[in-house]
Amino acid sequence: MDKKHILIIDDEADIRESTQMCLEIIGEWEVSVASSGYEGLIKAAEEKPDIILLDVMMPGMDGLATLQKLRENSQTAQIPIILLTAKARSSEQRQFNQLDIVAVITKPYDPYSLSDRISEFL
């Protein structure tokens, strides 16, 4: 079976590293990482991952702007996206539900159970 490929777009290095390690070891995912929305757009178009984990709060181009650009690009428009956010108020959750995403995972999350949670969404 081919490994599923996931792209993590998050500006926090420790979150990228811990998430990548858990997904590779526990979920046996192939993992790519990007530290900004801009880098994420390039990697998503080049690598066409099976799913993208996208942080909402990032400097420069935030996650929602990145999401919009991913959806506007025909090469990346169909890739399922899970938002990672520290913001979990119900008003924001409703806003996220309006977006073209498969799920919202609230930080802090348990990196050990993340692979199973992502697999549920695919």
Fold and architecture overview:
With 122 residues, this protein is of the alpha/beta class. The chain has one domain (5-121): Rossmann fold (3-Layer(aba) Sandwich). Helix content is 43%, strand content 20%. The chain is built from five helices and five strands. It has helices at residues 13-25, 37-47, 63-72, 90-97, 111-121, and strands spanning 5-9, 30-34, 51-55, 81-85, 103-106. A five-stranded parallel beta sheet has the order 2-1-3-4-5, with helices on both faces. β4 (81-85), α4 and β5 form a beta-alpha-beta unit. The longest helix is centred in the N-terminal third of the chain and has 13 residues, at 13-25. The mean pLDDT is 90.
Summarize the main sheet.
5 strands, parallel
CATH superfamily: Response regulator
Number of E-type strands: 5
Q: How are strands sequenced across the largest beta sheet?
A: 2-1-3-4-5
CATH architecture: 3-Layer(aba) Sandwich
CATH top level? Alpha Beta
CATH fold naming: Rossmann fold
The level of helicity is: 40-55%
Mean residue pLDDT: 90
pLDDT below 50 for ≥5 consecutive residues: which ranges? none
Structural class call reads alpha/beta
What share of residues are in beta strands? 15-25%
What pattern of helices and strands is seen along the backbone? EHEHEHEHEH
Count of the domains: 1
Gap from first CA to last CA: 16 Å
Round the Cα radius of gyration to an integer and report it: 13 Å
Number of helices: 5
